[in-house]
Structures are given as C-alpha cells and as structure tokens.
Amino acid sequence: MIKKNTHVQIYQVVLSSRERADHLPIDTKEVPFEVRMKGKLLHDANVGETVRIQTATNRVETGILLAVEPHYAHSFGHHVQILSDIRDIILKETEDLS
Amino acid sequence: MSSSYQDLLKRKNEIMKQALKLDYQKFEYEGIGFDYPKMMADASYTLEDVREIQLENNVGHTPLIELKRLSAYAKKFAKPGFGARIFLKDESTNLSGSFKARRAAMAIHQAKKLGYKGVIAATSGNYGAAVAALAARAGLKCIIVQECFDSKGVGQPEIIEKARACEAYGAEVIQCSVGPELFYQFLKLLEETGYFNASLYSPYGIMGIETLGYEIATEILENEGKYPEMVICTNAGGGNLTGTARGLKKAGADYTKVVAASVDLTGLHMASDKDFNQKSFTTGHTGFGIPFTTFPDRSDVPRSAARPLRYMNQYVLLNQGSVFFITEALAILEGMERGPAGNVSLAAAFHLAQSMKEDEIIVVQETEYTGAGKHMSAQVSFASDRGINLQFGDPLKEKPGKNMIFPSSGAMLKVKEIPLDDLRKAYFYKLTDQMVDPLLTLAYDYTTPAIERSVLMRMGFSSLESKAIVDKLFDHQLLSYGAGHIVYLYAKIHQLSIREAGLKLLDDQEIDQKMEVLK
Questions:
Q1: Are B171 and A56 in contact (CB < 8 Å)?
Q2: Which neighbouring-strand residues pair with B146?
Q3: Which of the 8 DSSP states describes residue A54?
Q4: Going residue by residue through chain A (98 aa), what tens digit of pLDDT does each one get?
Q5: Residue B141 CB: number of other CB atoms within 10 A?
Q6: How many Cα atoms occupy the beta-carbon half-sphere of B126 within 13 Å?
Q7: Which site from B27, B86, B450, B451 is most exposed, i.e. has the minimal number of CB atoms within 10 Å?
Q8: What does DSSP say about strands B257-263 and B230-234: parallel, antiparallel, or unpaired?
Q9: How far apart are CA B509 and CA B519, in angstroms?
Q10: How much is the ipTM here?
Q11: Would you call B177 and A33 a contact, using CB atoms and an 8 Å cutoff?
Q12: Best residue in A10, A33, A61, A93 to probe B by mutation, most B CBs within 10 Å?
C-alpha cells in the first residue's frame, strides 16, 4: 500500500486510438495518446489503481498510478568509440595551431 | 461543456483569445493576408523597454567571443586569403541556460502585467526551462506540456532533462506521448486554468529576441568598426531567426546576411511514434524548420510572429554527425562545453567561413547549456543502443533513423543548400490552398435547384412535380440536405413508396419538424 502524500507519477489515456487526430502515421494512430504527470497522492492506493493526485500547480488530476517516488535516471550515456575517434582527428588536425 | 477532441478544437480561437488577450482579428485583411508590421508594432514595447525588462531578469548582455582556434581550424581548409573569423554569442549564460530566456522574459512580463495567475507553454525544448525559471522569479504558476515518450514509454533523454530543469524551477510538467494532440492537451489546460499562453510565437516571444540581434550588431560595430558580414541562426520554429534579423535591422545592420541552419532529418516523420526516438536532435531540425518556414501559421497562435522566410538570405542543412563533430571541436579547441542542438549554426559557420574572406566576420548567435541527457555522448549512445549505425564517411549521405555519419576530417564537414525559391513556392502553394478552400466548401455545402430537380426526375417524378418539391424544400431551407435524400427519408418515416412520399411531402405542413433529424 502506497501512503497518502507520497510523491508519485500517474498516467492517463487521453485519447484512445479511435479518438486520435486524422492524418497520423499508422504507427501513431494505432496507439493511444497518453500523458504522464507527477504530484502528491491524495489517498492510500496501490500501483495500477486509479488515483487522484495534487500537482505542482495545486490541480487535482486522476489517473493510473504508475510509479512511486519517481527519480531522474538520465545520464551521459556510455562510452562511444567514434566520439573518441573524432576527438583524436580534431586534435591531430589542429596540432600546429598556436 | 464537452472537452472532447472535436469540441475543444472548435473552441480554439475563443480559448486562445482568453489566454493571450490579443485580438488578431484587427490585423487581418480580407482573404488570406494580414498586416504583419502592424501586429509587431502594436505590442507596445520598444526595443529599449525589452532590454530593460531582460536586464532586470538577468537575461541578455551575453558574452560575444571570438573563436580564434576554431576559426583557424576552418581556415586550414580554405584557399589563401579566405577563412572568415567566427564569433559566438554565448547565450548559455542567460538565466536557464539558453537564448529562450529572452523570449520567456517578455511572455512572463506580459502575463504579469495582464494579471494572470500562471502561464502555460507547449514546448519540449529549452523554452520550457526558460518559462519555468522566469515564472518562478515573477511568482507565477507554470505548466509545461512536452512531447516526451513513445508508446513503449521510452523517453528522449534530452527531453527528460528539460522536464527535470522545469521541475527544478517549480513548474508542473505534463509529459505526452508522440503526436500533434499535445495541442489538445495544451488547450484543455488553458481552458481549465485560465492561465496565460506563453507562446513562442506571440509578438512578445519574437520581440524578446530582437535584443540578441541588436547586441550582436552593436558589439561587433564597437569592437571591429563594422557590422558582421553574416549571422547564422539555428532554425526550428523560426522565431530565433526572425527576432535576430529584426534586431540587426533595428541596429542598422541592413546588409548583414542572415543564414538559417537546421539539422537534416529528412525521412523521419515528426508525428511517427516509431521515428520519435530514432533522431538525435529534438530541435533545430528540418522537421520543424521546413514546415514552419513554408507555413508559419501552423503554430499555437492564430498568426505566428515568427516569419523566417521574410528575413533569411540563405538556408543550409547539416547532418547530425557534423554537429556532434563541431560540438567536440568547440569543447577541445575553445574550452566551451555547449549544446549540442544549439551548435547547428556553429557547424554551418565552420564550413561557410571557408568561402569567405579572412577579414570577414561570421557571428553564430547562440549556445545552450549542456548536461545529462542533453549532451552529445548521451544522444550518440542512445542512438547506438537503438540500432543507429555510427560510421565515418560522407556526412551528406547520412540516412536519419538508419545511420549517423561523422566527418573523418574538418575538411569533410559540408552543408547542403535549400534553394529559397523552393521554400517560397511551397509557401505559395499552401496559400493557394487557402484561397481555394472557400470554393471547395461552397461546392460541398451548397447545391442548386437545377441539380436537385434532376435528381428527383431520375427518381421518377415529372419535371413539374420535381419543381414543386424543390421549391417547397427551398422555402423551408432544407434543400442543402439534398431533395432526393429528403424524399427517401420521408418515405422511410411514413413507410411509403418514393413516389407517394414525394407527393405527400408537397402537402405536409409539418415538414420542418419531421426533418429535424437532419439538423
């Protein structure tokens, strides 16, 4: 059970595949249009249940509980050899510059 | 009130008007045209006002730096006497880390002045962080709506970082899956909250950039005794180029050549769920650059104040690998870790400098902050994990979504030109569509008594009967539904034959009520 006031992320299906805009590429048209938002859980609940949250602008939104205490995990990625290679090229081609 | 997709879009103009308090109607001509200069002059801020508002907000007056080693590197590949000097306006030093703070400062100032409690912006880019930061300073609530993840839930690292920055400034971030319906979400929030539309494309959003062009012109004039020969702008929605060019002109730099540069993402569909995460640039690319140049009024306001085709003298495209190459060069030759998306114009400068004289000056008018997610190593490793083939070769042969081609020497970094006349033609055809639309609507919505009579005659009525039925329907304003259609419906309702129905209909006094179903 996730406690009330926990920082969570929810998602909503805003438009089902059928309700989506015309003139979309097929791969987009066949999936729903979804949004994710974060906020404070307004009542005890479990992941996967429909819940209400209070967002940063004090709005109340309803959606499916997706993640508990979401955090940022984006990074600088991993080593890519070609980026080291272009560095070597640039350094070599500019060796004689003052 | 229904907020279904169709119903909400019908209320679009009304919502927009409430959210910007700008009456675009007064700039419209009859037909397809509108008075752009009047719209820009109407916004009641002088360049001096804008400078002051920005200064108060720690925005603008960014360093202008001569990139001596990068210029010398480019010069190595030029003929003797050629190889222009490249200067860089370090816009990453603005509040929130990009030139977008200039635009946000004006939007927020206007929102505050008009008494709004909060602002909303639809943006996946640096503009979100800029609006969030400036809103925080002004004590306004802020919501940013961004296109962020595909249907598998995979987010673009660069856009995730931008969400983080917005949230750091206290904004609420609504993250959407791929598709133009983001605009629907945006309208829904505007209507629900009554917040200000901090659009990138309002006159305020463009005015904010004019100071950038103005600073470039006056600073180069002061230090070098002349205006720069060329200013290069990374081009997406067109506001950056439009505002910069207008600022250059306001400073008197009438002969400075204004060049647009975008990353070439030809072949990737911008509304495609699958293509979304196959690109390594989320802005500054042709997916925005071309459509917004050839039809600016596709933006989130009735009339976009960003009209790049009015101001650009040349449009060049770079491949993704070349921009990463130059991003690396900027770091290791000049000690400036920036971008990558903001470095598109720098990559263009590196090549274009080679065909300009050595005493000529190119100004690259922006840089942006870099960090986790929005860093070239984050983007290139994300691409390689998604099966994009990284290789050396001819950068102009890159196939976006399939491979990424890096130049194996500074000499290999090239640009592709888009003839401006092609863009003008595309714009022209778009406008002719608009001119023809009312004619098509007429043809779809209206009919003539003669056509309707001929339909009835083919259904077996005599010419006199047909005329009587058509006249009756015309008097009751039912003709546009089709005389044949109405007779058929009438027959079904009364369970009559077609012929009986047509004749009975002639004497029916309650035809209006019965045909209510059609309306």
A1: yes
A2: B175
A3: E
A4: 999 999 999 999 999 999 999 889 999 999 999 999 999 999 999 999 999 999 999 999 999 999 999 999 999 999 999 999 999 999 999 999 97
A5: 21
A6: 29
A7: B450
A8: parallel
A9: 18
A10: 0.97
A11: yes
A12: A33
CB distance B328–A83 less than 8 Å? yes
Give the pLDDT of residue B128: 97
What does the block give as tokens for B308? Answer: 């790049």
Q: Which of B124, B142, B181 to mutate to test the interface with A (most CBs of A within 10 A)?
A: B181
Q: What is the pLDDT of residue B519?
A: 67
Residues of chain B below pLDDT 50: none
Alpha helices in B225-319 (DSSP H): 239-250, 286-294
Residue A83: its chain B contacts at CB < 8 A?
Answer: 324, 328, 376-377, 380
List the beta bridge partners of residue B173: B144
Three-state DSSP state, A41:
strand
* Contact between A7 and A30 (Cβ < 8 Å): no
Contact B333 A19 (CB under 8 A): no
Q: How close is the nearest chain A Cα to the Cα of B459, in Å?
A: 36
Q: How far apart are CA B483 and CA B466, in angstroms?
A: 9
Task: List the one residue out of B308, B235, B330, B59 whose CA is nearest residue A87.
Answer: B330
Residues contacting residue B379 through CB under 8 Å, at least 6 positions apart: A77, B157, B158, B280, B281, B324, B340
Q: What is the pLDDT of residues B30-43, one digit of tens each?
A: 888 899 999 999 87
Q: How far is B421 from chain A (nearest CA, A)?
A: 28
To the nearest whole Å, the CA of B432 is away from the closest chain A CA by 21
B413 within 8 A of B395, measured Cβ to Cβ: yes
A21 contacts on B by Cβ (under 8 Å): 5, 179-181, 184
Q: Comparing C-alpha atoms, which of B214, B188, B189, B186 is closest to residue B200?
A: B186
Six token digits for residue B228 = 């720069």
Query: What's the distance, CA B126 to chain centroid?
Result: 14
CA-nearest of B480, B1, B40, B93 to B303 is B40
As a whole number of angstroms, the distance between CA B353 and CA B107 comes to 35
User: Could you tell me the CA-to-CA distances from B326 to A71, B75, B338, B404 in Å, in that order?
Assistant: 32, 15, 10, 14
pLDDT in tens, B52-80: 999 999 999 999 999 999 999 999 999 99
